[in-house]
Amino acid sequence: MTPIKECLINKKTNITPIxxxxxxxxYLPEFREIRKVNTNFIDLCLNPILSEEITLQPIxxxxxxxxxxxxxxxxxxxxLGQNVEFKKNLGPxxxxxxxxxxxxxxENEFTKKLSPIYELLKNLNRNNKLKNKDLIGFVGAPWxxxxxxxxxxxxxxxxxxxxxxxxxxxxxLLMILDKFIKIHIKNQINSGATMIQIFDSxxxxxxxxxxxxLYNPTSSLVxxxxxxxxxxxxxxxxxxxxxxxxxxxxxSMVNIDYxxxxxxxxxxxxxxxxxxxxxxxxxxxxxxxxxxxxxxLEVFRDHPxxxxxxxxxxxxxxxxxxxxxxxxxxxxK
Length: 333
Ligand code: 1CP
What we know:
This protein has about 325 residues and is α/β, with parallel strands linked by helices.
């Protein structure tokens, strides 16, 4: 059994498994090399040879306990026919949506468009490089995908009133997303994903209507993934009440963000926990890293815990700090 599965199933806590969100990415010189000559990000995600190489880069370097496939949450709107581009210094830039087209897209067409992602998973399973490690597939949560699909840009500066002006569109999109996110989850599992993570990176922007935008749509995906016999990790970044979230949504494990105080959470949470460390700590020094990492390890000493960050690793992170991090976690007794 993989270390993370042991942690989830046997609640064994004497070793702490580790992997990092965005571990395959811009902080790695070997990733930047590939990226330099592959300027179209979507094409890179649809290239199973290169995306396999990128997925394995952090595994080969650091020996993490899980590989997360190199892909993006915005491949789903791409699969639905929405134009998706990544622009330098701007981030994602999506095209206008056409609801009539979205309502008639069928499962086969969608699966065909995203087939290189499923091929990537099959190839990773074939080459045995992930012995005793999990292979994590992922999706964006309905709310976060809705935000990108309607806003068409990163909502870094928040959402305007304008965003909610067409409630019928929101309702229809949530229905379409529930259907196609499930198809994407099923396809990833059938191709060899041993775990699914649901990224709700913009959950913190939900101000009311938690049932409609957070609890109901996420519960539907969690229930579905569990029915396929695969554990599901939720990352509802920025919400104020992780305890309530876990009680309602019942994920196999929850990834906390760096604003959560682990000390106050620990007494109120029953599910296994992942993550928490502020990625900015990796931009400081080794002594500070050690004391911050140890805080999490101590608090979760008797609780099933997978080491990870409270959001993705930052592009400016030094390799040495990641090496030190892995050592600190591995040597903790
Ligand atoms: O070179 C580059 O400029 C590309 C940077 C990059 C990378 C490496 C993007 C653009 N996406 C990815 C890969 C990626 N994205 C992975 C696989 C790699 C890994 O995790 O090891 C995953 C899981 C994601 C997930 C993702 N994409 C999320 C959820 C996690 C999070 O960080 O909150 C989100 C919000 C996206 C959208 C996205 N993709 C890329 C950008 C710049 C953004 C937008 C971020 C924003 O709105 O500010």
